Amino acid sequence: MKFPGSVLVSLVLFLSETTAALCLSAAYRAAGDPMWHWLTLLCALLPCVLVQLSLVFIHRDVTRDRPLVLLLHLLQLGPLVRCVEAFYIYYHAGRIEDPYVSITKKWQVPKDGYSEEIEKEVGQAERKLRTHRSAFSRASVIQAFLGSAPQLTLQLYICVMRQEITAARSIFMLLSLLSIVYGALRCNILAIKIKYDDYDISVKPAAYLCIFLWRSFEIATRVIVLVLFSSVLRIWIFPVAMANFFGFYFFPWILFWRSKSPFPENIEKEFSRVGTTIVLCLLTFLYAGINMFCWSAVQVELSDPDLISKSQNWYQMTMFYTLRFMENAFLLLMWYLYKTDIYMYVCTPLLFLRMLLSYCMAIFFMLVFYQFCHPCKKLFSSSITEALLSCFKFLFFMRKTPKSAVLRDEAAVKTAENTDEAGSSSKTIDSQKGYPHQSASSNA
């Protein structure tokens, strides 16, 4: 049984960031800044409530007779109680024999073209511990992108407008950045486990390092770009943010309406149609919040019974990073053109280039992860480099126009003359394609 380290990390980040937010909010109130006080407090309390709701929902506490646990969740002590319960289960797992043990079957990730099925005994204690890990992973994602990301953007904006960085604010921003990166890392791991649920997956330290560097560069660059743009064009940041958020919010719903699939009703048996709709709206709300700052890795698909797409869509990822790079470059250009006197002592061209380079570094580490460090890279139908090349070729041929009508006529004449040669060559190619299949079947 694995040590519940992810549960402990999630709890430490949650408690430290919430405590720092409350202290900083009190400092703003003492300094006579009611607007920064209330905004900081709102960004701290809203994710706390959502984290409690997610823990209660995953553990099904509403349908169980546990009034003390529900009361502790109302007092915002739910994560602490859940962590204590998880460690209690972990340290008492081997002392008491489980009355019920189930057998799970998982496939190994193919090695040298072969894969073996593994059978494991899963006791009741291990299943409960897995539920705690899953609950804290989802709570970390909610805390990161609905609380830490807005909080980091707000505090960095205050630093820019005041032209000062205090020790308390810098520590708080560092905690918020770590919380966001950790939430994005958990989102990546969740996506891998959901898409490859039939396989026994082990993530190596090199993969964690690549994800950490990828998400750190991506999120930090995105937050800085939004803050720089909002510091010179305050009104225009609202249309940009709303367009991003509502675009990603309605994207899964548009795909669902186009698929003409029936309304999903298997989320919870106790839920009515209204309750299911609320849960789906909250899920797409979280999906939009993630994509505001980085690639979500988990693609919401409302027509799927699991509500998550299990296909690896390289084209969608390529389109996202291409458009996001162009958006960041445009926002930086607007900041550079309309910069004010507060950037008098800043080398703005160098900062412009650094932001673009940082985002390119994020894309670089992402490519390294998917090409070399992904735990299930042997299961990919095509590598990410092949997908990128095919995307670029498609865009190149879409923009490429014929030089003259004469060339088109000559090509048509050559095509008509070489019809017989094409037929004979296709037969030759088909006969050559048969040999690899024969050799593969003989080896198998």
Automatic annotation (TrEMBL):
It is found in: Membrane. It is a multi-pass membrane protein. Keywords: Membrane, Signal, Transmembrane, Transmembrane helix. Its main location: membrane. It comes from the Eukaryota. GO terms for cellular component: plasma membrane. The chain crosses the membrane at residues 35-58, 167-185, 235-256, 277-298, 318-338, 350-372. Residues 1-20 form the signal peptide. Residues 421-431 have a biased composition (Polar residues). Residues 413-444 are annotated as: Disordered. Belongs to the XK family. This is XK-related protein. The lineage of its organism: Eukaryota, Metazoa, Chordata, Craniata, Vertebrata.
